[in-house]
């Protein structure tokens, strides 16, 4: 046992459908991976090289509640599919990428859009708008042995019963194997890494008291209350 000088922090984890939990090592998030969302954010949807930012592992939250964060008046929902890796490496071939996946889940990339916008204008990193406490609500992981590798299927988000976001997983510009392969060229991926795979169009703000329902066909529904 390591001789830590303070108590070791708890290992962040995601619950697993059917029991158990998945330990989270790193969280990679791809930006503008649906063409319609790229357009609504003011960018050309042509297939440019992908770019990624990161959340912190302990941002992933399965409590069903999202505390409205401080210093923001414009917090947006972004429904996304999470990809959880059971193994990794460097320079992973696209043809081999899916063999590293343990499972998939429904998640939300909650964003302090006003603070992210300020950071963009100043050419600064996005963490203040993306990597804040409990900014990654997530549902239970479903193992590949149960759901396979979802490459199509409806993805949607409702707020208080009103449809806000809708699309299909097959509309992702960069597919799951490509994301894994690309990331492995720049990072050494390992078991416990998760990838948030981008959001369709329709992102918008939430306020305290709202109820968000994020759904991906085959992966169930994630219900989160804004508190």
UniProtKB/TrEMBL annotation:
Residues 27-227 form the Fumarylacetoacetase-like C-terminal domain. It comes from the Bacteria. Keywords: Hydrolase, Metal-binding. The keyword Phosphoprotein does not apply. GO terms for molecular function: hydrolase activity. InterPro entries: Fumarylacetoacetase-like_C, Fumarylacetoacetase_C_sf. PANTHER family: ACYLPYRUVASE, FLUTATHIONE S-TRANSFERASE. This is Fumarylacetoacetate hydrolase family protein. It comes from Albidovulum sediminis. The lineage of its organism: Bacteria, Pseudomonadati, Pseudomonadota, Alphaproteobacteria, Rhodobacterales.
């Amino acid at each position: 046992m390591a001789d830590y000088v303070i108590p070791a922090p708890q290992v962040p984890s995601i619950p697993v459908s059917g029991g158990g939990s998945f330990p989270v090592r790193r969280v990679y998030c791809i930006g503008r991976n649906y063409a319609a969302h790229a357009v609504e954010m003011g960018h050309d949807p042509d297939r440019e090289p992908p770019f990624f930012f990161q959340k912190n592992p302990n941002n992933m939250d399965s409590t069903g509640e999202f505390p409205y964060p401080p210093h923001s008046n414009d917090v947006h929902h972004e429904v996304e599919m999470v990809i959880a890796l059971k193994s990794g490496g460097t320079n992973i071939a696209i043809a081999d990428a899916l063999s590293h996946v343990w499972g998939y889940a429904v998640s939300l990339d909650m964003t302090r859009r006003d603070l992210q916008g300020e950071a963009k204008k100043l050419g600064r990193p996005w963490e203040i708008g993306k990597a804040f406490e409990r900014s990654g609500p997530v549902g239970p992981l479903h193992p590949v042995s149960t759901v396979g590798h979802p490459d199509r299927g409806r993805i949607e988000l409702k707020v208080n019963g009103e449809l806000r976001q809708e699309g299909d997983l097959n509309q992702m510009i960069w597919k799951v194997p490509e994301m894994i392969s690309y990331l492995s060229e720049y990072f050494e991926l390992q078991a416990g890494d998760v990838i948030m795979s981008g959001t369709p169009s329709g992102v918008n703000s939430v306020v305290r008291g709202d109820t968000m329902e994020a759904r991906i066909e085959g992966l169930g529904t994630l219900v989160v209350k804004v508190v």
